[in-house]
Structure formats: C-alpha cells, structure tokens
C-alpha cells in the first residue's frame, strides 16, 4: 500500500480486487496461512483488512501467483525465512511499479512525438 491510502480497513472484495483474485481465494489463503493473514472480524463476521494485512497478502500473492509456488512450499518458505521473503516481495512490488511508471513515460513520449507537428 502507498502513503496515499487513507482507509483504516478494507473489505474482502476490495482486497481481492487489489490483487485481481476471487474473494474465495483470499478466504482460502486465510485458512492456509493463519499466522500471516488474520483480518479483524466485526461483530457480524465481516472481515476487515488493515494495510498491514494487505502487505502480508501481497507477500503470499507474490509467492503463490507470481512465483508459482505451491501452498505448502510458500508456507514453508514463510516459516523459515520471513525477513528474506518479505524483502523479496517488496522488491518485486517496487520493480513492478517502476515498470508501470516507465511504460507510462514511454507512452507519453510516443504521444508527444506523434503530435510534434
């Protein structure tokens, strides 16, 4: 999450949308990674994710969806190397953001070249 985010809590639907995954996948991950993903539940059982929860989901998403690890392998990696896994996930996220930014700059430059007449 970025410094621009002002919300304290996010719904399951919002978090699922951030990572382009179904809500059921997020709930499944909660059961598979109970130490990492444990959103607060309101009195009516509605899950409420904090920015910290979302960062933990980002790490698991990176391991399972981006790197293609199986659940058991991701769980083992998180168990044995929490710091390294978190740092690697953060680096990957930063690189993806940088790539998006560079592609956007390239599009702008291309647009400026076409309209330079």
Distance between the termini: 41 Å
CATH architecture classification: Orthogonal Bundle
What is the fold-level CATH name, i.e. the topology? Multidrug-efflux Transporter Regulator, Chain: A, Domain 2
Helix vs. strand class: mainly alpha
Q: What's the arrangement of strands in the largest beta sheet?
A: 1-2
> What is the overall pLDDT average?
85
Series of secondary-structure elements, N-terminal to C-terminal? HHEEHHH
Kindly estimate the percentage of residues that lie in beta strands according to DSSP: under 5%
Q: Characterize the largest beta sheet: strand count, sense, and whether it forms a barrel.
A: 2 strands, antiparallel
Q: How many beta-strand runs?
A: 2
Task: Write structural notes for this entry.
The chain is mostly helical and 117 residues long. The chain has a single domain (12-114), classed as Multidrug-efflux Transporter Regulator, Chain: A, Domain 2. The chain is built from 5 helices and 2 strands. It has a two-stranded antiparallel sheet with strand order 1-2. The longest helix is centred in the C-terminal third of the chain and has 33 residues, at 82-114. The protein is globular. The relative contact order is 0.10. The mean pLDDT is 85.
Topology diagram in text:
Layout: H1 12-19, H2 23-32, E1 40-41, E2 47-48, H3 51-66, H4 71-80, H5 82-114
Antiparallel strand pairs: 1-2
Helix pairs in contact: 1-2, 3-5, 4-5
Provide a short characterization of the protein structure:
This protein has helices at 12-19, 23-32, 51-66, 71-80, 82-114; strands at residues 40-41, 47-48. It is mainly alpha-helical and 117 residues long.
């Amino acid at each position: 999450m970025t410094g621009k985010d002002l919300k304290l809590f996010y719904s399951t639907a919002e978090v699922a949308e951030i990572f382009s995954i179904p809500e059921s996948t997020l709930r499944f991950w909660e059961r598979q990674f109970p130490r990492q993903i444990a959103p607060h539940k309101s009195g009516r059982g509605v899950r409420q994710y904090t920015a910290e929860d979302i960062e933990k989901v980002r790490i698991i998403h990176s391991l399972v969806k981006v790197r293609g690890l199986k659940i058991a392998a991701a769980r083992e990696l998180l168990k044995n190397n929490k710091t390294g896994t978190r740092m690697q996930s953060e680096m990957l996220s930063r690189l993806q953001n940088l790539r998006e930014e560079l592609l956007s700059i390239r599009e702008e430059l291309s647009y400026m070249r076409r309209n330079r007449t």
